[in-house]
Write a structure and sequence with these properties.
seven-stranded mixed β-sheet; alpha/beta; Rossmann fold; single chain; about 280 residues; four-stranded antiparallel β-sheet
């Protein structure tokens, strides 16, 4: 029961959300936004490795330009920076207060924003994508590490945003977004799948078991090519990730497939299915 003990380290009501940072005996330090646990020191590596390595190693060519939207904790950035072939990383985060707090209280999770390859943009992700489209900017891989479809993140789940993502993705490129917990948010993953299917020729779902969340996390990957990312093209081993885990992640439980097959798409963001 000691996992429920917690020491409050920091609290702030930012312009966008209510942020809490706790320290716990079992899971270590935890980031909580609007009452929802975002990560813990104990198992964040599972989430971040699967988020990044599956697209990077499943693509035919390693990406050189990467766009990260969300992910103020810097964990996705950290994993991306492990690839030397990446030449450019743009990280767009709307809530600078969360980023600063994570730098202070979760430094081992964070990537390095001082890396010369990194451009940190404090601003709205949807706006950045639309402006990048207007500039003719292109990215080989886009990683959407946004919060669930509530609050400031809801615009990132709407159809126009998905079309803009398609337009700024390089030929053969891949977009991946975290798509919630099917156990507690049964409509979110199928909704994201359908929105990507509106524009992309190949869309796949994969999963990662993160104990902190109490269930497997769903990721949806949308590719501009027909090949997809379910097969690793390069050997790599992380603390959790390896080639066998990569392949197995794309085998979905029967009840996940039933959620996909039975989803009634009204076009509305399914915020009513949260928790």
């Amino acid at each position: 029961m000691h996992c429920y003990e917690a020491e409050l380290l920091y609290e702030e009501r930012t312009p966008f959300q209510h942020m809490l940072l706790f320290d716990t005996p079992l899971f270590g330090r935890c980031l909580v936004l609007d009452g929802i646990v975002q990560l813990t020191q104990k198992d964040e590596f599972i989430y971040h490795e699967m988020f990044v390595h599956c697209p990077f190693l499943g693509m035919d060519n390693r990406p050189k330009s990467v766009l990260i939207i969300g992910g103020a904790d810097g964990g996705v950035l950290r994993e991306v920076q492990g690839y030397e072939e990446v030449e450019r990383i743009v990280h767009v985060e709307i809530d600078e207060a969360v980023l600063k707090a994570c730098r202070k209280y979760l430094p081992e999770v964070c990537g390095n924003w001082d890396d010369p390859r990194v451009e940190l943009v404090i601003g709205d992700g949807a706006k950045y994508v639309k402006e990048a489209k207007g500039r003719g900017d292109r990215f080989d891989c886009i990683l959407l590490d946004s919060t669930d479809p509530i609050g400031p993140a809801i615009v990132l789940f709407e159809p126009p945003f998905h079309k803009d993502l398609f337009d700024i993705l390089s030929p053969g490129g891949v977009v991946v977004r975290q798509s919630g917990l099917p156990l507690t948010m049964p409509k979110v993953m199928p909704f994201v799948l359908r929105r990507f299917q509106d524009f992309f020729p190949k869309v796949e779902v994969y999963r990662a078991p993160v104990p902190t969340y109490g269930d497997e996390m769903a990721f949806v990957a949308a590719s501009k090519s027909e090949g997809g990312i379910s097969q690793p093209h390069m050997e790599k081993r992380g603390r959790f990730y390896n080639p066998d885990i990569h392949r197995a992640a794309f085998a979905l439980p029967t009840w996940w497939q039933e959620l996909i097959d039975g989803f009634e798409d009204t076009g509305e963001v399914p915020i009513d299915s949260l928790y």
